[in-house]
Amino acid sequence: MAKDKPKISLLLTGGGARAAYQVGVLKAIAEWYPRVHHSPFSIYCGTSAGGINAIAIASYASCFRLGVKKLEWIWARLHSRRVFIASPYGMTNYLFKQGFARLQADYHERPPFGLLNNRPLRELLNQVNNYERLEKQILAGNLHGIAITASSYKSARSVSFFQGQPELCEWDRAKSKGRRSLISTEHLLASAAIPLVFPASRIGQTYYGDGSIHQLSPLRPSLKMGADKILMIDLINEKTEERDHTKAPGLASLGGHLMDTIFSDTLTADLENLSRTNTIIQALPEHERQRLQLKNVDHIHLSPSESFEPLAKKYYCHLPPMTRALMRLTGISPKDDAAITSYILFEPEYIQALINLGYEDTTEKETMLRKFLK
């Protein structure tokens, strides 16, 4: 990649099954380039399911369309049973073991808690990801850096595990740090471990959970790796129905509200801060910018044009029966709130609908995005 070209970062936020929307966006962008063409992005940052997408694309940085095709192939053939154990026996046995482990004496090491066993996801990631390709893309100069963010339950800090060019440095900030590491399946599982839904993942001597929990500055990994531009594909849930605010919120409503807050609010605040910083930098004289080593970072924030909830309600019946039963036992029903359902509905029809939505939204913004990606 030419050294004078701006470093464009692709930032993919978390959202469980909602991340299929990002596949549609990338599919539309890939069609604007020749069949054999390097990726327009040299920096990739991902959190939760967005991190899984980022790894798949970054591994094929030298052939962008091939990477997107592989990612679409994976998502198009995804089922709940390939993400978590969904059979009645498997779920009952797993929950029984979780409960029994907590009845044992304290000197027995207890497994991390999660309502769903994500062992199939571990097997899938080991099967479809070739992590050695990341280092090859870095050595070839096609990839400047990639970061996967997780949350440490030990330090209550956001940790971005990154891999990239030798000049990239680790960082320590309030509630956030960056650590150089060879990215593996464990990092992806840690970043995607939605609290209470999936068990935490252990890296070294520390347990990590979903990267969005303590991520106060989602843009920081991109900026620390030297991004000149940032394209963000967010998964903010646009509400379409007004609720009866006189009714007390149930478990489903509370859970959906907390999930949306975890995955969205910090990015909104960080974007406002970046915009203010850019305004200040533009007001400074050129010689002052150079002396302080400041630069304007252009950005585009993409988000769905429609709510995911109607689609989640429509395809809720495609969830495995035992999963639906477990959700109802915990008070979650599509009649109350489909926000939580939209995170775990890993079924082909729902996923394809999200891919199509992402594709259509991106096609409508083609002119703006083409100009940005030059």
From TrEMBL:
Gene3D superfamilies: Cytosolic phospholipase A2 catalytic domain (3.40.1090.10). One of its GO terms (molecular function) is hydrolase activity. A motif (GXSXG) lies at residues 46-50. Residues 10-226 form the PNPLA domain. It comes from the Bacteria. Keywords: Hydrolase, Lipid degradation, Lipid metabolism. The lineage of its organism: Bacteria, Pseudomonadati, Pseudomonadota, Gammaproteobacteria, Vibrionales. This is PNPLA domain-containing protein. InterPro entries: Acyl_Trfase/lysoPLipase (IPR016035), NTE (IPR050301), PNPLA_dom (IPR002641). The keyword Lipid metabolism applies. One of its GO terms (biological process) is lipid catabolic process. The active site is at S48 (nucleophile), D210 (proton acceptor). Transmembrane segments: none annotated. It holds the Pfam family Patatin.
